[in-house]
Amino acid sequence: MLEEIRKGIYRLAVRFPRGKEKTNCYLIEGKSGYTVVDTGIYSESAIQTWKDVMDSGIHVEKVVLTHVHQDHIGLAAWFQRETGVPVIISEQGYQVMKKLRSAANIERLNHILPKHGGPRLKSDAMKDDSFIYDLEPDQLFSEGESLRLGDEEYEAIWTPGHAPDHFCFYNRERQLMIAGDHILKKISPVIGLWEGEEGNPLKDYYRSLDLIEPYQVVLALPGHGEMIENFRERVRETKRKHDQRLDQVLSLVQDKPVTAGEVCRKIYGEGSFPSMTSMFMASLTRLIYLEEEGRLQRSEVDGVYHFRIAESEEN
Question: Where is the Metallo-beta-lactamase domain (predicted)?
């Protein structure tokens, strides 16, 4: 069940219910017990997985979160209430949590999707998981702070983009980076507007890639997929992939104004929502990024936003 990644550091893959996806949760050994980094998504099967781990003799000292997306914070409240384990969250994560308590996923998505050429989702399209944010953290941390995970010190590095509250944790002595969803081995994390508020998270993501690239890393521990050994090259490759997608989006806007929904369908094909929501978000955040860069401009037609090549680009 537990895979030892490095001495005293173990990975537990917590599967999604009824799916092949899973979240990498890490257990870091210390004299007072194990620090758990991320919990996996909320489900009865995930709860049973953690019960089996603790029944095997594992004592969890505390839970620390890289960010508060559902598949990382999902069981934090369960740990706190059912086992008395303290939960430690970033100050940014706490602010996001408070927003997510007040509205279900469906409401947040319906604030964004229709305005950008997507469908309005029906009330039963997605499960309401706002209850997982119904907890008060036992401790908050901030950017640059040193956190004790197990018995070792890790630097908290704020890396917004995939999530506004995303943090990586770096151990300088071991040259280990707990990367969360910031860098993955084979795919790029989705950059979206999951809180239902417009911003430019792709710009944040590029900045966070630049911030993390210089770190000396012999092994990165991601939130999904396999471990990353060529960390710096993977960061650079991720940048290149995003650059290529931006060029692709620009090529789709040459002939006429388009919505994010139209760009999504041209790149990823036809599909049903909510399964296409991640692809829609990726398309939308690229358009917003290019707009802020001055390469696209938007107009509103019948309450829906369209993007076209900026006049400066045409000249």
Answer: 22-224
Of 256, 289, 269, 275, nearest to 119 by C-alpha is 275
Burial of 261 (0-12, 13-18, 19+ CB in 10 A): buried
Contacts of 265 (CB under 8 A, 6+ apart): none
In DSSP terms, which residues pair with 297 in a beta bridge?
308
Q: Is 14 in contact with 46 (CB distance < 8 Å)?
A: yes
Name 167's bridge partners.
158
Residue-number span of the structural domain to which 117 is assigned: 3-245
Characterize the bridge pairing of strands 176-180 and 146-149. unpaired
Residue 296 falls inside a structural domain: no
Quickly count: other Cβ atoms within 10 Å of residue 40's Cβ: 28
Choose among 97, 96, 22, 26: nearest CA to 58: 26
* Percentage of residues in the chain having pLDDT higher than 90: 86
pLDDT band at 106 (very low <50, low <70, confident <90, very high): confident
Give how far Cα 284 sits from Cα of 17, 138, 288, 292, 312, Å.
28, 36, 6, 13, 21
Q: Is 253 helix (H, G, I), strand (E, B) or coil?
A: coil
As a whole number of angstroms, the distance between CA 216 and CA 194 comes to 32
Domains of the chain: total: 1
CA distance 250 to 266: 12
Q: What is the DSSP letter of 103?
A: S
Q: Which of 186, 145, 188 minimizes the C-alpha distance to 168?
A: 145
To which residue do tokens 């706190």 refer?
Answer: 80
pLDDT, residue 314, reads 64
pLDDT per residue over 117-168, tens digit each? Answer: 999 998 877 788 899 999 999 999 999 999 999 999 999 999 999 999 999 9
Tell me how far apart the alpha carbons of residues 60 and 51 are, in angstroms, rounded to a whole number.
11
